[in-house]
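Most newcomers find our protein records easier to grasp once they have seen one. To make this concrete, we reproduce a full record directly below:

…
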Amino acid sequence: MWTRDYHRIEQAIRFIEDNVRRQPSLADVARYVGMSEFHFQRVFSRWAGVSPKKFLQFLTADYARRLLQESRSVLDVAYDLGLSGSARLHDLTVTLYAMTPGEIKAQGAALTIRYGVHPTPFGECLLALTPRGICGLRFIEPGAMREHADDLKDAWPDSRLVQDQTATGAMVQRLFGPASRSTESKGACPLVVRGTPFQIKVWEALLRIPSGHVVSYQHLARRAGLAGSTRAVGTAVGKNPVAYLIPCHRIIRSTGAFGEYRWGSLRKKVLLGWEAAHKEGP
């Protein structure tokens, strides 16, 4: 159901953007995605928690600019308090562990990475796990698992890859399932990544941006102590190996434009709209 709902939402938003000048009605959009107006409204509200009309307000440049202003102070507080490179995803504590080249070499083929493809509210994802934690999460198009598994092998060339839908499925349920928004504490969610010291610093900075907020590339660079390296920071953001959990989708341009996204610019809008809807409420 997740993937089917997401693709309908994505289709609808693309249709609205392509026809923005004539401002299509809800009935027009529903017809385009092959649903009745009533059914489309129900599916959309079930997925987003708000009506299509309200959701679209979160995708405007005006809303994005207001959110940039509001979010700047939120990020400043996080840095001024000296918070470590960790974040909260619902009631999971997300922590980042960077494997050194020496550790990676020492483990060699002894490092087993289990991976699987699963539906999420934002389309299919490939999730990869090491014994220490999540080392990869990427949104993929249907039928593209082999291509992304090969990319995973390139990223961890000395490891042993094992497809394991059971192990990865349990983690996907923790991250995206119905229980993911309960108030019950669910413990830690460690991330295991490999990258340059510069990339790690940027990814740790991304972890401090709360859901429902956005910051500009320039502000992220400045608060991460990398002022003057905005372009390089943008490159590091684009190399993020763990979508959603390291929230690179929360970086937008200072003009309010959403910008590009490794897993699709439209998916970025959908992610930000979904988070805004849950922050603002119905």
